[in-house]
Design a protein that fits this description.
ten-stranded mixed sheet, binds magnesium ion, four-stranded mixed sheet, globular, binds 6-O-phosphoryl inosine monophosphate, 12 helices, 2 domains, binds guanosine-5'-diphosphate
Length: 427
């Protein structure tokens, strides 16, 4: 039985939650391997909408064990609230497993995230303000606090003193803020210890044992390929590795264990926050995509920037992630357009580029080269088989597939769990 990684192939919000949920009861474990509550994954089941930020989407599938891996950064207050809110809606969250090695986000991380954005002014990243970057910075600087630390007060105090010493100089002397009191943070973190304890374990061991036993494990990415700190549009990225390789690091499994890698792509493109976006539409079409596609952030409520499908990015994502499949979402949103442009290459300073250029400067100068496809002008949200789609929609899908570097395993035609067209089984 397979190990499947699901990754965003654009700039996030492609519908990873829905794609993960599609695997349904055939999956035994659903593992988040990076990111934190900057993510917002929306799943609609029987008309009821769930927005998940830290919990893996598998929590909504009976029998599936949700796992938060070592690569995730956890705001424990947000996690516990999310669990309670789901429990209040009748969802059982008691199966959750949390890695003892995952790092914790403290309120001081969100404070630093927000003030450092303010200091960047026009060059700001447009972060979610959830403290993600500062928490990962502490992890890499070896100043992070891990979940396992909250169970040992002596160690916790020692580590917090180390973590807050430099930060307090920064907060007071550079940012003109109040310093953070070690005792306050100690109380904050210790307060989570009892609530977290039943869920905390060596998740890498659990996941490897499950794979040894032939069980099916899905590694659910947050954010996306173009937001990857190594391979995305740096510095306008998140501070983790959403790409498929990140699943091995962030869950503690070897690369030889992964069988399938599914990239999720929207039938057009969106981006939240700052940074280059070659196919962005700043005109009426962009506004129409935003309204028809309801492109407003699940986490921050911000307007998403909208543009046409970019096959250069899809090909890049196919390569960087080693995609075996693509899951295409939101095809239904394009029903209104008579003519649909697809970016097939870039023109950069008068030269055609079929692949992402080497430097950031070139990418900032990239102008899309479009091919145009006839629209289908009808509602396809009731289609459940490829043959049900109008001929022009079929042509659009086949063209994207040919341009994007991996075969499509399914197509989303609406937000609902049932609103999909399966093409190739994953399990
Ligand atoms: P994620 O972060 O990648 O999980 O994506 P989000 O949940 O942030 O954003 C995707 C949005 O599109 C959500 O509101 C989904 O309910 C919705 N969605 C997903 N797939 C489809 C689809 O095929 N059609 C339509 N109309 N909506 C979809
Ligand atoms: P999901 O999992 C879209 C963006 C932010 C900002 C940049 C850095 O729902 O697809 P951060 O707070 O991570 O330091 O912000 O990354 N960003 C996302 N954009 N979807 C997301 O998650 C995102 N998570 C972060 O807007 O540009
Ligand atoms: Mg999202």
């Amino acid at each position: 039985m397979p190990a499947i990684v699901i990754v965003g192939a654009q700039w996030g919000d492609e519908g990873k939650g829905k794609a993960t949920d599609q695997l349904g009861e055939s999956i035994d474990y659903c593992v988040r391997y990076q990111g934190g509550n900057n993510a917002g994954h929306t799943i609609v089941v029987d008309g009821v909408r769930y927005a998940l930020h830290l919990l893996p989407s598998g929590v909504l599938t009976p029998g599936c064990i949700p796992v938060i891996g070592n690569g995730v950064v956890i705001d424990a207050g947000v996690l516990l609230d999310e669990m309670k809110a789901l429990a209040d809606r009748g969802i059982d969250t008691s199966r959750l497993l949390i890695s003892a090695n995952a790092h914790l986000i403290g309120s001081y991380h969100s404070t630093i995230d927000k003030v450092s954005e303010r200091f960047l002014g026009k060059s700001k990243i447009g972060t979610t303000g959830r403290g993600i970057g500062p928490a990962y910075a502490d992890k890499i600087s070896r100043l992070g606090i891990r979940v396992g630390d909250v169970f040992d007060e002596k160690i916790l105090r020692q580590k917090l003193e180390g973590a807050l010493d430099q930060k307090n100089h920064l907060l007071v002397k550079v940012y003109n803020r109040r310093s953070v009191d070690v005792d306050d943070v100690l109380v904050e973190f210790k307060g989570y210890a009892e609530a977290l304890r039943p869920y905390v374990t060596d998740t890498s061991r659990v996941v490897n044992t499950a794979l040894d036993a032939g069980q099916t494990v899905v590694f659910e990415g947050a954010q996306a390929t173009m937001l990857d700190v190594d391979h995305g549009t740096y510095p306008f990225v998140t501070s983790s590795n959403p790409i498929a390789g990140g699943a091995c690091v962030g869950a503690g499994v070897g690369p030889t264990r992964i069988d399938r890698v599914v990239g999720v792509v929207k039938a057009y493109t969106t981006r939240v926050g700052s940074g280059p976006f070659p196919t962005e539409l700043l005109d009426a079409d962009g506004e129409r995509l935003r309204q028809v596609g309801a492109e407003f952030g699940t986490t921050t409520g911000r307007e998403r920037r909208c543009g046409w499908y970019d096959a250069v990015i899809a090909r890049f994502a196919s390569r960087i992630n080693g995609l075996t499949d693509l899951f295409l979402t939101k095809l239904d949103i394009l029903g209104e357009w008579e003519r649909i442009p697809v970016c097939v290459a870039y023109e950069i300073d008068g030269v055609r580029h079929d692949e992402i250029p080497m430097t950031q400067t070139e990418f900032h100068h990239a102008k899309p080269v479009y091919e145009f496809f006839d629209g289908w002008g009808e509602d396809i949200s009731g289609c459940r088989a490829f043959a049900d789609l109008p001929a022009n929609a079929q042509r659009y899908v086949r063209a994207l597939e040919e341009l994007s570097g991996a075969p499509f395993c399914g197509i989303g035609v609406g937000p609902g769990r049932e609103q999909s067209i399966p093409l190739r089984p994953l399990v």
